[in-house]
Amino acid sequence: MSGVMVIAEIKDGKVKKSSFEAVSEGRRLCGERGGELSVLLAGDGVEGLAGDFGKYGAGRVFVIEDPVLSTYSTDGYASVFAPLIVKEKPAAILMGNSILARDLMPRLAARLGCGLMTDCVELAFEGEKLSVLRPVFGGKALVRETVEGDGPAFATIRPNVFPADPADPPEKVEPEKVPCDCAEIRTRLIERVEEGDGRIDLTEAEVIVSGGRGMKNAGNFKMLEELASLLHGAVGASRVAVDSGWRPHSDQVGQTGKVVSPKLYIACGISGAVQHLAGMGTARTIVAINSDPEAPIFEKADYGIVGDLFTVLPLLTEELKKVLPD
Ligand code: FAD
């Protein structure tokens, strides 16, 4: 067993950024330990995307195309990927820690009798074994883990933690087409209803402006939307803001919401309860705006503004407009 295989995720005809992050990290691991970096790509009409992975250093891209794979199904994707994994014998299989990955990776790992480590923030080979670091107990602790057994180690990586660095020089990839030998698909997607009209996916956003109880009502979130759009980011919310009906549940950050890792997280009127911190504690830079100087969020924040958000936010937005290009 050697090398790293990445399972690519496609959304709306485009490769998700977290897939490139996984390929970049796979390249780094292969650089350390040797072995080939390959990508599994499934869908309908996706062959043209194979070259993108070469830019991030993948040497081989296996493409499985069929109309039945145009939408994701656990049965379909697991049945086309499993035989390839068995044949190619990679030491590790990586995927971005998305909702789809949380469905597919356990199924694949169980089918092949292998171990899975989820939401990893650090990866390294220790001899033959993949060893990972991942947050537990809502981010209060990190555990180092490895998996037993002879098969490949499956791992999902937390989006925005590993940089998506293009390879220098890039690899020239000739997609290797693999026939689709798809087992019976027992679950079929009939309709997909997207929340958020094409807004940036919170888990992949590089900037998140979040609001809590301090926002007072749904209408005031317009201020956050304006600031987020200026910073090409997304709007998040605390559970109180969601439970109050001010934001949809898909915006909730935290233990029972989404786990995010943006470069910049601006928390407005959020106290910093442990359940909220569990969702954003690994953000690279945290800015908190809160009128209470004792709010726990300030213990986590890199920059804190003690003040009324209704005064601070318009000033901040106004100043940023002066310095940021349209
Ligand atoms: P509050 O704690 O009420 O804080 C509001 C803050 O706004 C205060 O610090 C206040 O000083 C400040 N403020 C008020 N007015 C202004 C102003 N004008 N200007 C500036 N600041 C102002 N919470 C989550 O967020 N995500 C989760 O996923 C989640 N999961 C949970 C799971 C469980 C099992 C449980 C028990 C709880 C969970 N919670 C979660 C809830 C969590 O415990 C907190 O209740 C919640 O995070 C608090 O939200 P908040 O910070 O918006 O509100």
Outline the structure in words.
- The chain is of the alpha/beta class.
- It has 9 helices and 17 strands.
- The chain has helices at 17-33, 50-55, 74-88, 99-111, 221-230, 239-243, 274-280, 297-300, 309-323, and strands at 4-7, 10-11, 14-15, 37-43, 60-65, 92-96, 116-120, 122-126, 129-136, 141-146, 153-157, 176-177, 207-211, 234-237, 264-268, 285-290, 303-306.
- The strands form 4 sheets. Strands 7-11-6-1-4-5-12 form a 7-stranded parallel β-sheet, with helices on both faces. It has a 5-stranded parallel β-sheet with strand order 14-13-15-16-17. Strands 8-9-10 form a 3-stranded antiparallel β-sheet.
- Helix 3 (74-88) crosses helix 4 and helix 5 (221-230) packs parallel to helix 9 (309-323).
- The structure holds flavin-adenine dinucleotide (FAD).
Provide the gyration radius in Å. Answer: 21 Å
Give me the strand/helix succession: EEEHEHEHEHEEEEEEEHEHEHEHEH
Q: List low-pLDDT spans.
A: none
> Strand order within the widest sheet?
7-11-6-1-4-5-12
User: What structural class do helix, strand and pairing data support?
Assistant: alpha/beta
Work out the strand percent.
15-25%
Name the helicity range. 25-40%
Distance between the termini: 50 Å
State the shape. Answer: globular
Q: How many β strands by DSSP? A: 17
How would you characterize the largest beta sheet? 7 strands, parallel
Mean of pLDDT: 93
- List the ions, cofactors and other small molecules found in this model: flavin-adenine dinucleotide
Number of helices: 9
